[in-house]
Every structure is written in structure tokens, then in C-alpha cells.
């Protein structure tokens, strides 16, 4: 049996105390957002995910999706759960009120997303992909297209996909072959085959709106000749309801390691009718609107699975009796002590906890930037926020999913043999979490995005959106003795990050392969320092509040213990990463291709 | 399609060049062992594993084992493969000639085991468990029991198991409840339930010989009241053939994350007839004979999967075309370059390679000690070898399986989305490798064995079996400029290991929880230094041979590149581990159990 209770206390801490949710009311359309309203949303989401989505997580994994003659059926209960999800308004929660959305800011909705991912990652992909498609269409589509398609997508009656990958190309979309021929009436005829299309076909919605990358006849070669099209499963009839079937079919679903309740489809477009989104040959730009949002969401998937796995590990560590405490029996009346008394089990739980809470805090920081970029009335704030989102997106995506996988594995290890079998549901977390390191750009691609694009764009301006606040925080708290155990390690690792950044900037300019060879280690180094920054800030709040917090004092004490664990036990990885980076590309690149 | 070719060149290097196989002839019964004979065995094993076992690996995973009314069927083809395995003499290869074995030393047979694990981990468990049971019975059983049961086990006609775990106890066997009542005729009546019994029931052999831990009526409480019994599925008839069914039944098999073709059984003993192995209440000692051997074998499983996963990753990285080299197109005539040109892909391949070859070298070093302990005519050598085996067993088990899992995941990452689906068979490596970190004592338990038992036993004598040769090697080569890039990092990390050892010895003596909190980080630190020692020794050989090696020069050049990669990119982890160790237990232990 899987267990999960939304970590509402920690979520409120991140949102209200760490990132000051009161400031959100300064954003456009958020004037009435109050802490009470936010807490109410979080509680409703907790209730929904705990009671509706969680019970379908293991059964959905076991049953998987069914494919027959082009039709895909989701596992038992998914359809009812989706209807309930839609009726409760969750599809519309984070969308623009102009199209029927409720306009909840990302700062709040990312926490809802986390709960969805904790309770049922596979389920979350259906509305998740729709929201990504909504974003691309809203940002780049014509008003006519938006009016015709967005309201039903926001409502959740129709779902969305992103159709990028083809059998011979994923990362390198410049190779794609799907073609679009103008029909003279403003529409296009789309033909080609796509694979790995999440939610490409299913039985949850009346219609499916595919966003498809394809080439126009006059397209330049490579990545600069790709356009984005809206291609629905059913064309609309005169009343805007699903009408005739379009030339879109599903030829199969993948048998995957995990997320088995999410239909991963092969989709064929056979002279399917579609409409151009945005300008010809500028499809990648439009698709990136969707992809950037999706990348932060995929990071949230890592966080969500980590939280669920952590809770599972804690539950088992409290209940499983094996051996005695090394400090003498703690529960002499029982046949053995619960394994939570053992230092090595605690090492696993504390690691899981420190990563999970750290990622939640960092996610909140990035979500705030997403909101400010979108909704701030102040241009300067919007630009600064855009920089922070650009910089942190690959870090959130790759770091959170790597750590999510690590935490899921720590949970399995805590269970021992019982973690390896289906019964307790923890091995599912490992299998489910694994995909998040791969899709929406592998974590290696994220690292290249960080060192190759984000680091150098606008003369390093995005970097400053992280470096400046960290420096300011360190400077402001350097003299505070109560924080010395947190500021010291943060300052040291931040110095390492600065060195590594300068090293890669210099050497990467001279030889891009130097940056490439350093990329993954650098992203992890950066991410660990970012978590360190969050932990130091959280420690500062906890130090300030613990003595006056009354019944809540234990919460702040736990924050301090976990912050200390992070600084002492996890952040030192940064030194090893810097050593690896510093050694340069030579040993990575020297071996002849035929010698492997 | 899974691919695998036994790495015979590297195996010969490890056996003949690194560990000087010629010295094996000095061991009892090994006088006729020659390099030619060894190479012949390895080639036969390569052929068998590549052509018979590999083709059943993915199909066995897909089909899994079948359970119906107490009967377990292995997947299609396993029975024929097992018959062929037995007929080719592989069951008997590493066993005592006194019972029909071929007496192959561990130095050779561990390489055969590696090939079996690379090609089909699930299959390997059936003969693997039999060999473990053989070892315990041979070391501790009465001559009568040995004569009655060993020959058929050695031949592979009958298989073996180890029945330790019960639903409420795994690590803490002191809690076990299975009972053994003396029957007055030298036999015992065994009653109890065991779980997680690999090869507990199946259709590969005529009989199954269970080694069962149980309590005698007068047994002291806890771990000191456990005895070991031989309990066969079928009792022998007057001719020594399988006769009446014993009170042993299989009530189900587990649904696992991986190793699906290995039957993991719930076994009930219902007044089953059994015989005591060794002395009453000394069952743990006898079981540890089996378990220690199994632990090195489980380490070999990690190595075996790592090799297969590495080869899969290389094959895909050469064939998959995506993007262009950062140094400019390498294959301008193709639509894109193969992904092996990308530094981040090479990072994954080089990491996999450095770990895999390093583990193979270290496995050879430990296997040699296994052989010397068993077969050396010189008491002093036997004792030294026993120390090394004792010290290195938990390291081989935990480090190799952790790295095997890491490498399997690097392979999936190299494949991207194609790694997450069943088709290429690489996600199976992740699922299969995961169990090896858990069974035969979780890796956390291995770490506790290292710091709690191995470090302090005999006044630190086992530690010296590693420290002395490493020190001697460093001293002897410190001045060799050609080796500076290898000896320098080795010496530095070795110094760190010495500091960490002294730290844990001192603090662990004062407070065992200090040692417990440091254990896992210390084991990894130790293991990485041990691999560093192997890489430095391999580099020394390569430096000596590369210029005169002719066609083989490229092999030695590759060794040097990989050694350098290991020293520069992987060994620096040791610094971070030492930082974590040094911080002590406080932050790990401070949080109240109810605060998690």
C-alpha cells in the first residue's frame, strides 16, 4: 500500500514564510490572493490527490494502458478520476481567465502539481501536457485559433500533446521529416510519424489537440525550417463540437519501465488537417514556450516522487523492527527496535528529506520568477524574472529529477527486499521517476543548455540573477553567529561555483568541447549550491522563529537539523565536482571511437 | 535486442598480466593450470553465455516465472539452457574434485560468473545458489551428509537454496521463528515459513536441497540460538534417487521489479524432515560460509550487469545519429554525427568503462585471495589471504552493486527515450541490477560489517592486508615520472582513507553510532581508493608495454586513457566523502523519530 499525505505545513512555509506570498498580490490579477485562499486551494488539492489519485497509482501501474485497433484505454478508474479532476476545476486552475481559467499563480499551482506527481505521476501527465499545449497556443497562436481551441482545453474537455520526436530524431529535431503542405484555405495537410507522444491517444477527453512540429515545402534545412501546427484528432463541426475524424491515428503504445498508466503513443498523421501556430519556420520558438514550462514541471515531477518516496521510507522505518540501536535498545519491550534508530537508515531518510525540502524551496523561488515574468507591472522586474527562469529551468529540470531518482532509490533501500517487490509500491517510484531524467530534453541536454546558452546569453546577465542575491545574502549574514554553520558552507561552495563558472566560461570560449565535458558536473554543482542557498535562507527563518513558535517550534528545529545535515553531508559534493570539472576534457575525449 | 560479447581481452589482461595467473600453479591441485587452459575455459564460457544465455535474457524478463498450485515453471527455454549448462559441466566447474567437481580456481571462475551475469542474471541465480549451498554443506556438513547430497549438487542435477528470511525478519535473523524438533533418529522435523527464497521452487532440477535456518527447542534466544538444516524437496530413496515428497511446499512467488526469470519463492516447511549441518546453535557460522561466497558473487553480478550495460551504451552511441560534434561535423556525409562524438555522452561511457574495468581488476585481486586462502600450502599466505577476503567482501558486494546500478542507469541515459522502453533491453539492466544492492545483506549492512567488524577484528590485521600493499606500491613508484599522474591521485586519496579510518576507529570506539553514521560513505571511499589502486597498477603495466605491444598497443593506450579518466573524474569523490564522514553523527541522529 502506498502512503501519501501532502506536506502542507512545509508547503505553507515555502510559500508564505520563505518566499513571502503576500508580495504576490502586487502582480496583475492577483490582488485578491490571500494566504487563506491559498491554504484553501492547497487543502483541496491535498484532499483530491490523497483520496482520488493516490488509490489509482499502484493499480494503474499494474494494469497499464491498453491498445487495440488504434484505440487506447487508460487503466480502470482513470476516466472517473479525470472527470472528477475536471469538474473540480483543476484543469483550469493555472490558466488565463480570458479563456475560462482561474489564474492561479505558478507559485501556488506548482505545489498542486507536486501533489499530483506525488500521488500519481502517470495521471498528472494528461492535464500536464494539455497545459503545456495551452501555453504554446496562447503565446503564439492567432486569436482565431485561440478562441476556437483554448476554452475547451482550459476546461479539460479536450486535452493537448506535443508531437516532436520521430523514430530517427529526438534531441536533434533538425532531422525531422513530417511535412506540411498549404491547402490554400489557410489550413495545411500534415503527414508524418511521431513517437513517444505522451497522452497521444486515450479515452479521457472528447478531443485531443496535437501540437505538431513539421516542415513546410519551402523550409530551410535543419532546425530553422521547422514550423508548429495545431492538428486535432477531431475537426470541429459548425457548433465547435468534435466533428469529423481527422487523419490522425495511433498505431501503438510503448511498453515502458514505468509511468505505465500514461499512454506513450506512436501517432501517424496522414494528410491530417492542421493550422499554423505562429510564423512559418519559427516552430522551435513556439515549442520552446511549451517546453520551458514543461521542463519546470518535469522538475516538479522529480520533487513529487521524492516526497512520496520519502514518506514511504519514513513509514516503513518506523514500523519495521530489526536489530537494536547501537546506543542500546530503544524499545526494550518490543522484540527489536524500529529501523529508524539505525544511523545508516537515518542517513537515507535525512538525505531524502534534505533534498526534497530543498527542491521544494528552490521550486518556489523559480515559480515566483515565473509569476513575476508573466504578471509583474514593472518591466525591470519582468526582465530580471525572465533571466532567473531562463537560468534555473535546466537546473530545476535536471537536478530535481536526478535527486528524485536518488530519493526513490533510497526509499527502496530502506525497505530492503520488501522494496524490490510490487506489494509496497516503492519500486514503482524508481521506475516512474526514471523517465523524468530523460524526457523534455535529457539531463545531459539540460546541462548543455546551461553552459552553452544560459551562461553566455546577454553577457552573463542570467547568471547574475542567481549570483547577486546569493552574494547579497551571504554578505548580509556573514556576521551572524547563529547562522555561521550555514553561511560558512554556503559561502565556500558558492566560491567554488564562481571558480567553476569562470573556468568554464574561459575554456568553453576557447573550445566548446571543454564546456561540454564539464556540463553535467557543473549543473549538479550549481544545483547543489542553489539548494544550499535555500537551506541557509530557511535556517535563518528557523533561527528567528524557533523560540517564539510555541507548538510549531519543533517544525523550525527540524528545519535547522535538516539544514545542518545538508551543509555537512551533501553540499561537500561540490568540491569533488569542481575537481572533475577542472581536470578538463582530455581524458573524456582521448579514446578513439573504435576503442570503446 | 541486447548485445553482449565477453570482454576476453580485458579478462586475460586482469588474470594473466595484472594478477599473474602463472602463480596459481603453486596452489594445491592447480599444478596443471596453464594460460592456454584458462583461455580455453574463458572462450567456452564466452561462447555459451553469448549464444545460449543471452538470447533468453529479455524473453525471460518479459515472460517471468509462472506459479500454479505449488508448481513453479521457469520461462521458455530456461530448462533447455540449464540442461545444456549442466551437460557442458559448468555447474561442476568450480567445485571440489572429491565430489565430482573440476576444481577451477575462483580466479578463473569469477570471470565465468561475470559472463553469466552479463548475459542472464536471472539464470545465473539457479546455479549460483546451488554453489553457495554446496560451500556451506562442504565446509560444515557431516561426511555422511556430504556424500549423500554433494555429488548431485555439484553435477547440477539437484539445486540448492538458502532459506534465511522470514516475513518479519531479514537483516535481524535473531528474530526467526522456524522450529526444528529432533526425531530421535538423527533427523529433525522442521516447521516454519520462509520468504524471498531464490530458486526455492522451479522446474530445472530433479530435486532441491534447502539449507534452512531454524531453532532447536533448547535454543537460546536471538542470533545465538540458530541452527542450520538440510531439508530436501524430495527425500532420497534407497538408491539415492529422489523418493517421497518431503513436507516442503511453495505457496507463491514474488512479483518483482526485475530478475523476473528467477523464481523468488515463499516456502513453507510443514514437519519437513531435515538434518543438522554443523553444530547445534552454530547455524550462523555455517550460513556465513555460504553468505560470504555469495556476497562476492553478488558483487560479480553488479560487475556483470555493468559490462553488459556498457556494451549496450557503446553500441547505441556509435549508431545513433543526433547533432554535430562541438568541434565541427565529424561525419559530414551523414545527416548527423553519431552521439559518441558528444563530450557528455563520452562522460557516461568513460565512467561506465572506468568503473567496470576497475571492478573487474579488483574482483580478480579478491578472487586470488579466495584461491590462496583455500589452496595455498603456506599457512602464512592462507592467513593473509583470509584477511583480505574478509576485508574486501563487503566492499566488493556493496561497491560493485552500487556501481553496477549506476552504470546500468548511464546506459539508459545514453539511449534517452529509447532506453526507457522495453525494446532495446537496457531498462532491464537497471531493474535487474537493483536487487544486488539489497540481497545477501543490504549495502548498508555491508558498510556496517566493514566498520563494525572487519575494521577492528584481530587488532586491525585485515585492514593491513590492504593498506600494506597499497603503501608499498606507492613507495615503489613514487619517483616514476611516467606514473606521476596515477600515483599522485592514488597517494592523495589513500591519505584521505587513512585519515578517515583513524577518525572512525577513534570515534566509533567511543560511540558506535559515530561509526554507523559514517559507514556507507566510508565503504564507498574505501572502494574508490581500492579501484584507484587497481587503476594505478594497470597504468603501470600499460606504460611498460605500450611501446612494444605492436597490434596490442591500442589496448594499453586505452587502459592509460581510462586510468587517467578515473583519477581525474571519479576518484575526487573521496574528498567529499571524507568531508561528510568528518562531520560526525550529530546532524544524522538529531531529529526526533516523530519529526520525520
UniProtKB/TrEMBL annotation, chains A, B:
> Per the database record, which ranges form the Acetyl-CoA dehydrogenase-like C-terminal domain?
470-591
Question: Acyl-CoA oxidase/dehydrogenase middle domain: from which residue to which, for each copy?
Answer: 162-271
Q: Does the keyword Flavoprotein apply?
A: yes
Pfam family name, one: Acyl-CoA_dh_1
Name the SUPFAM superfamilies for this protein.
Acyl-CoA dehydrogenase C-terminal domain-like, Acyl-CoA dehydrogenase NM domain-like
Would I find Flavoprotein among this entry's keywords? yes
The record places domain Acyl-CoA dehydrogenase/oxidase C-terminal at: 282-449
Sorted alphabetically, which InterPro entries does this protein's record hold? Acyl-CoA_dh-like_C_dom (IPR025878), Acyl-CoA_Oxase/DH_mid-dom (IPR006091), Acyl-CoA_Oxase/DH_mid-dom_sf (IPR046373), AcylCo_DH-like_C (IPR036250), AcylCo_DH/oxidase_C (IPR009075), AcylCoA_DH/ox_N (IPR013786), AcylCoA_DH/ox_N_sf (IPR037069), AcylCoA_DH/oxidase_NM_dom_sf (IPR009100)
What Gene3D superfamilies does the record tag this protein with? Acyl-CoA dehydrogenase/oxidase, N-terminal domain, Butyryl-CoA Dehydrogenase, subunit A, domain 2, Butyryl-CoA Dehydrogenase, subunit A, domain 3
Q: Which cofactor does it need?
A: FAD
- Acyl-CoA dehydrogenase/oxidase N-terminal domain ranges (all copies): 43-156
Print the keywords alphabetically. Answer: FAD, Flavoprotein, Oxidoreductase
Q: Which family does it belong to?
A: Belongs to the acyl-CoA dehydrogenase family.
Q: Which protein are we looking at? A: Alkylation response protein AidB-like acyl-CoA dehydrogenase
Amino acid at each position: 500500500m502506498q502512503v501519501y499525505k501532502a506536506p502542507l505545513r512545509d508547503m505553507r512555509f515555502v510559500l508564505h514564510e520563505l518566499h513571502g506570498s503576500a508580495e504576490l498580490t502586487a502582480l496583475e490579477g492577483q490582488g485578491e490572493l490571500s494566504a487563506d485562499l491559498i491554504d484553501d486551494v492547497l487543502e483541496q488539492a491535498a484532499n483530491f490527490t490523497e483520496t482520488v489519485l493516490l488509490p489509482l497509482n499502484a493499480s494503474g501501474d499494474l494494469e497499464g494502458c491498453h491498445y487495440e485497433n488504434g484505440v487506447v484505454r487508460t487503466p480502470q478508474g482513470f476516466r472517473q478520476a479525470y472527470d472528477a479532476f475536471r469538474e473540480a476545476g483543476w484543469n483550469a486552475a493555472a490558466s488565463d481567465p480570458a479563456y475560462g481559467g482561474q489564474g492561479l499563480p505558478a507559485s501556488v499551482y506548482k505545489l498542486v502539481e507536486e501533489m499530483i506527481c506525488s500521488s500519481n505521476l502517470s495521471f498528472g501527465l494528461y492535464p500536464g501536457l494539455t497545459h503545456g499545449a495551452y501555453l504554446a497556443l496562447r503565446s503564439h497562436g492567432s486569436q482565431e485559433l485561440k478562441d476556437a481551441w483554448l476554452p475547451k482545453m482550459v476546461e479539460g474537455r479536450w486535452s493537448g500533446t506535443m508531437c516532436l520526436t520521430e523514430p530517427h530524431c529526438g534531441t536533434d529535431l533538425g532531422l525531422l521529416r513530417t511535412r506540411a503542405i498549404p491547402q490554400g484555405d489557410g489550413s495545411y495537410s500534415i503527414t508524418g510519424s511521431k513517437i513517444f507522444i505522451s497522452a497521444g491517444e486515450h479515452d479521457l477527453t472528447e478531443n485531443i489537440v496535437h501540437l505538431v512540429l513539421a516542415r513546410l515545402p519551402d523550409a530551410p534545412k535543419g532546425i530553422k525550417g521547422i514550423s508548429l501546427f495545431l492538428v486535432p484528432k477531431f475537426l470541429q463541426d459548425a457548433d465547435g463540437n468534435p466533428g469529423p475524424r481527422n487523419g490522425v491515428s495511433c498505431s501503438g503504445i510503448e511498453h515502458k519501465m514505468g509511468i505505465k498508466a500514461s499512454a506513450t503513443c506512436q501517432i501517424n498523421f496522414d494528410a491530417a488537417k492542421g493550422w499554423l501556430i505562429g510564423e512559418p519556420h519559427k516552430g522551435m520558438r513556439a515549442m520552446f514556450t511549451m517546453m520551458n514550462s514543461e521542463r519546470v514541471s518535469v522538475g516538479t515531477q522529480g520533487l513529487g516522487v521524492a516526497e512520496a518516496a520519502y514518506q514511504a521510507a519514513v513509514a516503513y522505518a518506523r514500523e519495521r523492527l530489526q536489530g537494536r540501536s547501537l546506543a542500546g535498545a530503544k524499545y526494550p519491550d518490543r522484540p527489536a527496535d524500529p529501523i529508524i534508530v539505525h544511523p545508516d537508515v537515518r542517513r537515507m531518510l535525512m538525505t531524502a528529506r534534505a533534498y526534497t525540502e530543498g527542491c521544494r524551496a528552490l521550486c518556489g523561488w523559480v515559480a515566483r520568477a515565473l509569476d513575476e515574468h508573466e504578471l509583474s507591472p514593472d518591466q525591470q522586474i519582468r526582465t530580471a524574472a525572465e533571466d532567473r527562469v531562463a537560468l534555473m529551468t535546466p537546473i530545476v529540470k535536471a537536478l530535481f529529477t536526478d535527486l528524485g531518482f536518488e530519493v526513490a532509490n533510497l526509499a527502496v533501500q530502506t525497505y530492503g527486499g520488501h522494496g524490490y517487490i510490487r506489494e509496497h509500491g516503492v519500486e514503482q517510484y524508481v521506475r516512474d521517476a526514471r523517465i523524468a531524467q530523460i524526457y523534455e530534453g535529457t539531463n545531459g541536454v539540460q546541462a548543455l543548455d546551461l553552459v552553452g546558452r544560459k551562461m553566455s546569453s546577454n553577457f552573463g546577465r542570467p547568471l547574475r540573477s542567481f549570483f547577486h542575491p546569493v552574494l547579497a545574502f551571504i554578505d548580509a549574514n556573514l556576521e551572524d553567529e547563529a547562522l555561521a554553520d550555514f553561511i560558512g558552507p554556503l559561502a565556500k561552495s558558492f566560491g567554488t561555483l564562481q571558480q567553476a563558472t569562470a573556468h568554464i566560461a574561459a575554456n568553453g570560449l576557447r573550445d566548446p568541447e571543454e564546456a561540454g565535458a564539464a556540463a553535467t558536473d557543473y549543473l549538479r554543482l550549481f544545483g547543489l549550491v542553489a539548494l544550499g542557498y535555500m537551506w541557509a535562507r530557511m535556517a535563518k527563518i528557523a533561527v528567528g522563529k524557533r523560540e517564539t513558535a510555541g507548538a510549531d517550534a519543533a517544525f523550525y528545529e527540524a528545519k535547522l537539523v535538516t539544514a545542518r545535515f545538508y551543509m555537512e553531508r551533501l553540499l561537500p559534493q561540490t568540491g569533488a565536482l569542481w575537481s572533475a570539472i577542472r581536470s578538463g576534457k582530455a581524458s573524456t575525449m582521448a579514446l578513439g571511437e573504435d576503442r570503446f
